[in-house]
């Protein structure tokens, strides 16, 4: 019995050591900067808006959704000035406020990318 009691901890250590194995390399980052779930048009919109108002690109999925909403506003036949005013509100938030000029450029970017059917 005494011999058995000594072998159990030894066997446990051997098993434990075997489980460690070699360190697995970290998975390599994706070569694409496109977040999962964005279409190429949405990614193009995000890229264009990033050059207009860089802080907005921190949340690409949300930005793409808002671009789609901008397309809906344009498709509803609203006057462009009204769509730009809505874009100021839609894309501003937190500590960042979009200017009218930036909003107009964002609406242009949406028209060139996510609004194209």
Automatic annotation (TrEMBL):
<keyword id="KW-0732">Signal</keyword>
<feature type="domain" description="DUF732">
    <location>
        <begin position="42"/>
        <end position="115"/>
    </location>
</feature>
<dbReference type="Pfam" id="PF05305">
    <property type="entry name" value="DUF732"/>
</dbReference>
<protein>
    <submittedName>
        <fullName>DUF732 domain-containing protein</fullName>
    </submittedName>
</protein>
<dbReference type="InterPro" id="IPR007969">
    <property type="entry name" value="DUF732"/>
</dbReference>
<feature type="region of interest" description="Disordered">
    <location>
        <begin position="21"/>
        <end position="81"/>
    </location>
</feature>
<feature type="signal peptide">
    <location>
        <begin position="1"/>
        <end position="22"/>
    </location>
</feature>
């Amino acid at each position: 019995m005494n011999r058995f009691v000594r072998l159990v901890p030894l066997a446990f250590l051997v098993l434990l050591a075997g489980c460690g194995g070699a360190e697995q390399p970290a998975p390599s980052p994706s070569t694409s900067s496109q977040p999962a779930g964005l279409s190429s048009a949405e990614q193009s919109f995000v890229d264009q808006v990033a050059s207009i108002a860089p802080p907005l690109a921190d949340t690409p999925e949300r930005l793409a959704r808002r671009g789609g909403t901008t397309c809906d506003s344009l498709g509803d036949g609203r006057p462009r000035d009204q769509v730009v005013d809505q874009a100021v509100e839609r894309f501003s938030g937190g500590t960042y406020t979009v200017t009218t000029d930036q909003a107009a450029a964002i609406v242009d970017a949406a028209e060139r990318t996510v609004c194209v059917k």
